[in-house]
Amino acid sequence: MPLTFNNALDVDVEATVENTPVSEVHAHAKKMSVDFSLTECTLVRRERPGLLMVDFDAGGTTDPRNWARWYKRWVSGLSVIMISLAMSSSGALIPFSAALDSQYGIGVFVNELFVAQFTMSFCVGPLILAPLSEKYGRKPVLLVSWIAFTLLYIGAAVSTAATSVVACHIVAGLFISAPMTISPAVIADVWGFPSREEAMAIYALAIVAPPIGAASGGILLKLGVNQHSVFWIYTIIGALMTVLVAFTMRETYRPLILLKHARRLREETGDDRFKAPLEVPQIDLGLGARCLCNMLARPIRLFIHEPLLAIVSAYLAIIQMCSSIFVQGCTSAFGASTGIVSTLGASSATLIIGGIAVMFSYIFVVHRRFSVRHAEAFAPERVPPEVRLVLSKWAAPVFAVTFFWFGWTLFNTFSSVVPLVSGVVMGGAIFLLVFPVLNYIVEVYEGITASAMASVVVSMNLFPALFPLFSTRMFLVLTPHWALTVAGCIALLVTPFPTLLIRYGSMMRARSGYASRAHA
């Protein structure tokens, strides 16, 4: 028969289940001749009077952080692949501007708007999809997003009207933006510090390399592929990702897993005191997770009420803005002589080569000496999040210098290799700037990573979405030399930011609503 509690037995069972693995509760229930078939990898503890809070048992395989290492690497790798595909899809059609204009007669400016609107979708989608992943889970949102993206790109591939193509392309951007915020959340779900940093390093490289989309599109154009074939290629990719997410990815959102366990405990025991943190407003994430409307408003509320998140998002937006100016600077400086496709490939390649070189250096050399050492030094306490920002402090001035290096070596007296080498240095500097800061956000807002990352992603994509609308005119008026000098001055102004965040970050966390509770 189901387990029931009366006043006399209540005290006895509370004493047994408090801070005790369910396996022991199960054994105790058997002695009382009751049916108590529960998962053995759940810990039940009493955090509030009258409630029995469900948590993960140490070593239990229900906890995503205790999954097999090979599977965690697969889930992390799949997440990084998804973000790379999302970023590449945003720029793959840029080299096909002339073909789109020729077929649909949409004009140069409308064509630029066509590309910009897809990126603008990246500023809207995360605000909706990120909080939904914290209510319904990571897997369902990713699965629906890839299915919708695939169907919409089929529509774009078979459409003959410009309005249909534009509509399908833009709405697809809303759905494909899901991995941009959910992927780091998945990585945070399955990895703890310091193992998480290796996966986050690859994610950071993927999110700061949007020119790869234009470069891949340029390669397809040179191979004779038309714009409709680009839609079909991404349709096939979307279908493949749908299958992989559906059949190889398990749910990773830890609070939702606990919620399902709490419901099962209540069903099997008949005791309504079993609760998951998401079900208790006072122990909830502090932002109304139980109400769908409040859930959808979470990223905006975080951005407004969390000054730490707002400031960090603004800083990353400036870094992304300056990077966009660099890529356009390559196009303006070399496009006339080498061709737009070759220029996009060269600018992308220099950034990516520098980023990859520094990423591997960090994973195989710096990480083991830096992060692991700090984890051991602060054990058993958590490493302060500000420790992760030390590398950014040294990368910030290098990032600023590369703009002056590139801008003022474009003259005929220098080989074209000299300014392009600055792109390699910049790629490494961007990685060392963005990766520690993204890791900082994930650490500070660990319980609501997807919503916090939504604010960051929106900020980072806002300028790149609008930049194509005026970039050509900007470089015509200022010339590449002075446009890059302006970008360098902006980068120079924000150079002290990592140092200031290291010094005053703990103070800002103490004044931030959720951040202070997460690291109290």
Protein model, in words:
The chain is mostly helical. It has 2 domains: 7-62 and 253-290, no CATH class; 68-251 and 296-518, Growth Hormone, Chain: A (Up-down Bundle), CATH 1.20.1250.20. The protein has 22 helices and 4 strands. The protein has helices at residues 7-17, 22-31, 69-89, 97-104, 108-133, 138-158, 162-176, 178-190, 196-207, 211-222, 227-248, 254-269, 292-296, 298-305, 307-338, 340-378, 390-407, 417-444, 449-466, 471-493, 497-511, 513-518; strands spanning 20-21, 42-48, 51-56, 274-275. Strands 1-2-3-4 form a 4-stranded mixed beta sheet. Helix 6 (138-158) packs antiparallel against helix 7 and helix 8 runs antiparallel to helix 9 (196-207). It is globular and about 75 Å long. It starts with 6 loop residues before the first helix and ends with a helix.
CATH topology of the largest domain: Growth Hormone, Chain: A
Give Rg in angstroms: 25 Å
**Structural class of the secondary elements?**
mainly alpha
User: What value does the average pLDDT take?
Assistant: 77
Name its key features:
520 residues, mainly alpha, Growth Hormone, Chain: A, 4-stranded mixed beta sheet, 22 helices, 4 strands, 3% strand, globular, disordered N terminus
What is the gist of this entry?
This protein is mainly alpha-helical and 520 residues long. It has helices at 7-17, 22-31, 69-89, 97-104, 108-133, 138-158, 162-176, 178-190, 196-207, 211-222, 227-248, 254-269, 292-296, 298-305, 307-338, 340-378, 390-407, 417-444, 449-466, 471-493, 497-511, 513-518, and strands at 20-21, 42-48, 51-56, 274-275.
